[in-house]
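ingest -> validate -> predict -> emit
validate: passed (alphabet ok, no gaps, 171 aa)
predict: started
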Amino acid sequence: MSSRFVYVTYIRTTPAKLWDALTKPEFTRQWWHGMHHESDWQVGSTWRMMFPEDLVHHGQKVNGRVCDTGEILAIEPPTRLVLKWRNEFRADLKAEGYTRCTFEIVAHGEVAELKVTHEIDLDHSKFIEGASNAWPEVLSNLKSLLETGKPLNIDVAHQQPVEVGERARVA
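emit:
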């Protein structure tokens, strides 16, 4: 009894650059609509995903509020990161408990393979359903940033382009 989402993409970059883009806030903000991680990236340490300043979510400003929290379960730079992950801003998703998100990076010459597996021991998880809609968009932004120097800058959830520097709305 579980729900799982797996996404694999190939990015013309090195594992080290991909690792930095996944873990350093100055990069994460560029491809995840201004969101960023906070952690010291050590096993057992806390991890938080923060909303950007001045973000509007369902008509309310969330102003840098915590979006998701968890713990670093495993970390092997630049090839593997495992996070214990729970949503903090929607009561129905928070009630599902912690999920597990695994990032695996494999070098293939000039290309890095990124596999993201997000799962929970719960059938028909609303969190995993939402993640399965969000991951393709944010990982496409990541791929574009690393390959071209610019993210796609589109908010698929609202079908509108996002100007550079503008904060996107979170669905």
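The CA atoms of residues 66 and 135 lie 19 Å apart.
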